[in-house]
Sequence to fold (454 residues):
Amino acid sequence: MTDVTEHMMMRRDARALMWLFPMTDRSDLLLYLAVIMLPVDGTVVGPYAPFWTPISPWLFLVYAAANWRELPRVYRRFREWMLMPAVLVVLSAPGWATVALHPVPALTSLMAVVCALACLASLDIALRCKRLPWQGLLRALIAAYWFAFAVGVVQWLGIRLHLGSVKSYFTHLMAREYITSTSHWGGGRPQFLFAEPSYIGMHLFSVLLPLLWMMRSRDSIYRKRLRDLIVVFAAGSVMMGAGVRIILDSLVALIVVIVERVHWRQRSQRNRGIAALAGTMLLGAVSIALNSRLNSIAANGMDGDGSFYGRIWQSLGPICGLLRHPLYILTGYGAGNIADATHAGARDAVRLLASLHLDASSPAAWYRSMTADSIWTMSAYTSFLTEYGLVGLALVVGLLAWHITARRMWTKTVICWFVLVAYLYVQFEGYAFYAIPLLTWFVERDARSSTHAI
Fold:
């Protein structure tokens, strides 16, 4: 009798689990793992990519490979995107032949693009080809980000209460820790499970906020859950002192949300929208006044904050390298050759900084120390332009714009989404991130349906 009861309980638990996370076959478990690991991109567990260690891109790649029978259908829908890696290899060939070929960095760069396409393919395979219920994926995603936020709270408590065991644990868990006060990255800050605190906005406003927009006419419950998650995560990050960028990203995202939400042709709505924008401007002024780092930037310019200044000269070196050799402006130095461009432009960058009466000693030392395996720019535009030139960057931006135009999807929501993603990549260089694949898939999916739903 006991065995029968236990068997019935196991079957009941299995049914409950299948309701929470429905699957069409075993390979869908890979997709759920990829979704759960979305906010986990800064631990020692993930493979190294420039300035982050994500896990999900590789799981998306494995999921797409496991469902290879569906790939021809995906290819027919996104043919132009799927050809991009081959185009980037062609663009890299001149740089590889005349500058250098660093196999590991080159493969890392190209595989990041492949993993972004794997994310796009995985979405299409799961939600269109296999018709996997989206509710289970969304439940997993929301739970994963709430867990990441809870981790940040634990980190913050560990910092505030001087809990040595907590700080020690996360010091060993994170590939680049910001927890201890001695961290030369800018310590004493919670970073959640992200590679660094500045990536918070990238997750909140290029993944969760677009999903909220997708839910507008689909499910009010999930829309509310996403809204609460975004607001709590953003506000909590600011109050816990996670960094300056989440303040700036939140202000920009708030402006975009107001523009997207308000019906500007209606007078009453327009007045409320103008008042909301004015309130946001006031909030920005208060943030500058109360935050010492923002106040220093406003008062002293680009060198008013070390992190902000670093983002400028980290991009300045490779850009000067492109200007020194105009041929590479078109095709780039080649995949994996950002360090070569940086070394070529280092002298010009240092001279320019010195001419502006800025401290050029730290940039000069950094330029000299960087290798092909250790270089980073913290800007997708700088990295992509340096590796693949104006042709490569124009192809990606132009292809996304053409993809939207061809499907007549330049709605206000899509325009706001496009602008927000374009802004966020200014200070984020991970090619394998999920923002562009999510936007691309949504445009294709929504163009074929009458609703703005997943």
In short: The chain has a mean pLDDT of 92. The first helix runs from residue 2 to 20. DSSP finds 21 helices and no strands in the chain.
